[in-house]
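Hi support team,

I'm filing this because I wasn't sure whether my run with nicotinamide-adenine-dinucleotide finished correctly. The job status page said complete, but I'd like someone to confirm that the output block is well-formed before I use it downstream. Pasting the exact inputs I used:
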Amino acid sequence: MKIGVVGLGYVGAVTAVCLARDGHTVVGVDVDRAKLDLLKQGKAPIVEEGLAEITAEAAASGRLLVEPAVDARLADCDIIFVCVGTPSAPNGSQSLVAVERVAEQLGQVLRNAAAFPVIVLRSTVPPGTTETVFRPLIEKASGKTVGVGFGLCFQPEFLREGSSVKDFYQPPFTVVGAANERSLVPLRTLFGSLPGEFIATDTRVAELLKLACNAFHALKISFANEIGRLGRSLDLDARSVMDLVCRDRSLNISTAYLRPGFAYGGSCLPKDLRALLFLAKRSDVDLPMLHGVTTTNAIHIDHAASLVKAHGSRKVALLGLSFKPGTDDLRESPLVALAEHLIGKGYECKIFDPAVSLSRLLGANKRYIEQTIPHLDSLLSEDLEAVCAHGDVLVVGFKTPAILAALGRHARGARAVVDLVGIDRAAISCTYHGICW
Ligand SMILES: NC(=O)c1ccc[n+]([C@@H]2O[C@H](COP(=O)([O-])OP(=O)(O)OC[C@H]3O[C@@H](n4cnc5c(N)ncnc54)[C@H](O)[C@@H]3O)[C@@H](O)[C@H]2O)c1
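And here is everything the job wrote out:
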């Protein structure tokens, strides 16, 4: 293929020389003359393991051409990767100045081009940038429309500095957000045989994916470091603890607990997190991230309450109460906290949870609910139909077959559903609010 790469920094330089080594003709563009001079001489513009050899090889092959500006030489490319910088502003926003400039320049080049190049934005950008910033600028400057005159994708880059050449050939996966199927074709050809799955998705999903992955990596590092600081204050080496944490591939290093949904709760997570934070406080160890976990959980419950309140009616059916279906453990259930909040604000709640029978509750569980919702017996009903009929707002806390079937009958007309668990939206024929989707 003939491939353009605009921006020859860490991402662009690695992309350009690796593709040239793989046999493609590459036109690299950068405004930085020093980088262009180095590449012309077969020298890598950045320090990366293995890059010097590949750059020398690519330059010697004659397949790596470099240019100081986006010009007509890009017009007949099959794919044009845009890898310019998107540096942070002091308020955290990302500068899109270079992305916008390149979009206009590419548009001008495309104006008289006969080819159908697929333009692939690889710079990390906020969700919506490809469709609402990049695309209109190209379309305006070129007079062409996406899908007809050119293809458009956003492909997040997952390479890490220090191992970027290895990461180029062994990405965790290849994710491409595409405006249309035609745009995906040359990318499947180029990257389809790399290890890791090739996944086509929505451009905004792909854009947020990149930010989410990096936020997750930062979160993992900070979690390990907070456990490390706590361990040190307790005179133990938390590296051993984290080694063991990582050995659990079932609950810890897995997809468990990694889907947006309702708040955590129950008799263990809140209690043990509090215990850990107490240990830290006693030792004067600051653990702001783990402290923040309790804050974000409380905010999540408040958010569910605000979705209920937004409907305007005070009649609420709460479908589920305990901290997970099939248990009668009510201790620190987030659904109990939600019910308590709504009842405290004067909402008329009826609650259905077949596993919870007040007459059977014992011990700490019984004491907890008596303190939290003292008159629960008057609100709790085993009659799912009656509970649903009462509610103008149906709050779905469990996804059991009985509840799903009842929703099919009752989630209609002027009612609203607040979904905390991710039900099939197609079954709902009234107003629908997902908790975080
Ligand atoms: N560095 C990484 O490890 C990494 C990994 C994944 C994603 N990213 C993202 O990829 C993008 C590029 O990152 P980077 O580290 O390669 O940046 P970089 O600053 O190293 O390189 C950007 C290059 O773009 C060039 N440039 C700027 N404006 C230009 C223009 N109008 N025309 C042509 N060239 C222009 C600059 O001269 C520079 O060489 C960023 O959005 C970054 O967030 C970086």
